[in-house]
Amino acid sequence: MAFVAMSLTAISCSKDDGDTTKPSINLSTPAHDQVLKIGDPAGVLLEMDLSDDVMLGSYKLEVHSNADHHEHSLKSEGNTDFSFHKEYDISGNKSIHISHNDIVIPAGVTEGEYHLMVYCTDAAGNETQVARDIILRN
Ligand SMILES: [Zn+2]
To answer: What is the value of pTM for the model shown?
Structure first.
């Protein structure tokens, strides 16, 4: 175990561009296990604060089904599972408050447990990810 930990440290510090500190994600909404309404045209309120000690680069949102309680390995998904992917450019900001309703869950998708993933990358390429459990209900 000690060897594995040392290897990971070596990989994360291998960049030679100065900024080796990952950006931070403070996701306040949706909350853990929050129930989101399927077919609500207003969309899902997402609120978070992103910051980096040097400069932010971009962030990415992803929603996918967690009906199988997976651990982020490859899997096949059913046709009516809701999924969402979008990437945002936030370069030029050292810290930024994000608040929008871009995630709209269309009527007809499968109810159940989903993951909301947030990936934030700083200008130097360091990435932080947060996974939040959410529940979609009609
Ligand atoms: Zn997942």
So the answer is: 0.80
C-alpha 46 to ligand 1 mean position (Å): 18
Tell me, in angstroms, the distance from the centre of ligand 1 to residue 50's CA.
Answer: 21
Rounded distance from Cα 93 to ligand 1 centre (Å): 28
Burial of 91 (0-12, 13-18, 19+ CB in 10 A): exposed
CATH for the stretch 21-137: 2.60.40.10
**d(CA 17, ligand 1 centre) in Å:** 31
What are the phi and psi torsion angles at 9 (to 5°)?
Answer: -60, -40
Contact 52/24 with Cβ under 8 angstroms? Answer: yes
Give residue 10's pLDDT: 47
User: pLDDT band at residue 99, thresholds of 50, 70 and 90?
Assistant: very high
DSSP per-residue codes, 29-84 = ESPTTEEEETT-TT-EEEEEEEE-SS-EEEEEEEEEE-TT---S------TT---E
Q: Do the Cβ atoms of 21 and 53 come closer than 8 Å? A: yes
